[in-house]
Amino acid sequence: MMLAITRMPQPVIARVHGVAAAAGCQLVSMCDLAVAVPEAKFALSGIHNGLFCSTPAVGVGRNINRKRAMEMLLTGDLIDAETARAWGLVNRVVPGAALDAEIAKFTVAFKAKSGAAIALGKDTFYRQLDLDLAGAYVLAGETMTCNLQAADGIEGSAAFIGKRKPQWQGYRPMRTAPPAKSRFACPARVAPRSMTWCARRWRQAARSTARRRTTASCMPTARPTWMGISGNSFSWNLRPPTRLERLVQPVMGRQGFQTLAVKLPRKRKRRDHVNYLDGFVAAVPTANREAYVSHAEDAAVVFKANGALRVVECWGDDVPDGKITSFPMAVQCKPDETVVFSWILWPSRQQRDEGWKKVMSDPGMQGKAMPFDGKRLI
Q1: Which of 30, 240, 321, 369 is the most buried (most CB within 10 A)?
Q2: How many CA atoms are closer than 13 Å to the CA of 294, on its beta-carbon side?
Q3: Which of 81, 83, 42 is closest to 60 using CA atoms?
Q4: CA neighbor of 42 nearest in space, from 90, 6, 4
Q5: Angle value at C-alpha 176, between 253 and 210, nearest 5 degrees
Q6: Is-contact 301 252, C-beta < 8 A?
Q7: Tens digit of pLDDT per residue, the chain (378 long)?
Q8: CA-based nearest residue to 232, from 277, 285, 274, 278
Q9: What is the C-alpha to C-alpha distance for residues 282 and 337, in angstroms, rounded to an integer?
Q10: Whole-prediction pTM value?
Q11: Pairing mode, if any, of strands 258-263 and 310-315?
Q12: Other CB atoms closer than 10 Å to residue 137's CB: what's the count?
C-alpha cells in the first residue's frame, strides 16, 4: 500500500487529527502532503514493545533528516504537530475547524492544474530519488522532453504566449507500452512509467547513428517543397518524414514543431508521395470570434471524417498592413475585423479532391451561414 501511494497519478493528502504512531506515522510520511491539527501527535513507538520500527523508518527517514529520524526511532517519544511541521513531516498545522478547508485549498489548486503533468511529475519525482545526480538529471530531462510535447504541455505554452487560461485535457489512464498498431506514437500519451520506452528508443537511435558516423540536427518534420494555386485556395505539397525521422519521432512527438532528423552520408531517394495542404485567409468580425470558433469546430469534424489529417485555425494577433500587399489588404480587412488564417492537411491531392466533394455534399454543411463575408475569402 505504501508503494501504491507513490505510484498513484493523483496527489495523496494525509488528514491527521489524532495520534499517528508506528504504521500510522509511516502512512503520513508516504503521502505527498500532510495537514494536521495542533493536537495531533506523531511517534515511532515500536521500541517501547521491543520492536524497532524498521518499515516506518523507510518513509520517515525520507521525510526528515537522519538524526531526527533516529531520535524518534530510538526513544519512541511523541512529538507534537508543530515539531512535526518544523522537521518536515507535515506541511500545515491548522485548527480542527479549518482542517477540511485547508485540505480543500490544496485540492482546488490541484484541479486547476494539468492532471497529466501532475501524474508525470509525481512519478518522476519519486523515481529520481533513488538515482545518483547524473542519473536523476537524465531521467528528468527525458521527462521534460515528453512533457513539453504532450497535449497539455503544448496547450500550456500556447496559453502562456496567448495570455489566456489554458484548457487542460485532464488525466486519462494510459497504456504502459506503445500501441501495437501505432509504432511511432508520442510517448507523452503513454503512462509516465513508459518513459523508459521513450529513452530506450532514443538510445537505440543514437547508437545506430553513431556506428554510421552520422550527424544529427533539428529540422521541421515536413518542409514546404513548392507552392501552387488551386481554385480559390493556395496549396503546399509537404514531404513526409524519412524512415530515420520516424525512428526518433517518439523522442519529440508528432505534435511538436521539430523532430530529431539524422543526415546520412548517402544519396536520398526521390519520394513521389507528398501530402497536400489547402490554405485559407478570411476577415472575420472580431465580435464574431466565438461564433467562428464554433463554426470551425463543426467544420473540422466533417473534414476529418472525410479524410483530412489535420485542420488548423489561426486567429490573427500581429498582422500589420503592408505598403503593397498583405493579408489584411488581400481580404479588405475592416477596422472591426481580424484576419484568420487556416489550413487543412490531406494525405494526397486525390484524397483531397474526393474529400471536398463529400464535404460539400454533407448535410451538416448545407445551408450553414458563415460568421464572416465569404466573398472576401481567399
Answers
A1: 30
A2: 8
A3: 42
A4: 90
A5: 50
A6: no
A7: 888 898 888 899 999 999 999 999 999 999 999 999 999 999 999 999 999 999 999 999 999 999 999 999 999 999 999 999 999 999 999 999 999 999 999 999 998 898 888 888 899 999 998 889 998 998 888 888 888 888 888 888 888 998 999 988 865 544 333 444 433 333 333 334 344 444 455 455 545 544 443 333 333 333 333 333 333 333 333 445 555 445 544 444 443 333 333 444 455 555 556 788 888 899 999 998 888 888 888 888 888 888 888 888 888 888 888 888 888 888 888 889 999 988 899 888 888 899 888 888 887 777 777 888 888 888
A8: 278
A9: 10
A10: 0.47
A11: unpaired
A12: 12
d(CA 135, CA 118): 21
Cell numbers describing residue 164:
489566456
For residue 378, give the 3-state DSSP assignment: coil
Q: What is the DSSP letter of 130?
A: T
Decide: 253 and 149 in contact? Cβ < 8 Å: yes
Burial (CB count within 10 angstroms: exposed 0-12, middle 13-18, buried 19+), residue 337: buried
Half-sphere exposure of residue 270: CA atoms within 13 angstroms, side-chain side: 2
Record the cell numbers describing residue 263, joined without a space: 543526415
Residue 49 DSSP code: G
Q: What is the distance between the alpha carbons of residues 296 and 277, in angstroms, rounded to a whole number?
A: 17
Nearest alpha carbon to residue 3 among 90, 129, 91: 129
Other C-beta atoms within 10 Å of 138: how many?
14
Q: What is the DSSP string of 250-319?
A: HHH-TTSSEEEEEE-SSPPPPP---EEEEEEEEEEEGGGHHHHHHHHHHHHHHHHHTT-SEEEEEE-SS-
For residue 333, give the C-alpha cell: 480587412
- Partnered with residue 343 across adjacent β-strands are 279, 312
* Residue 336 in grid coordinates: 472591426
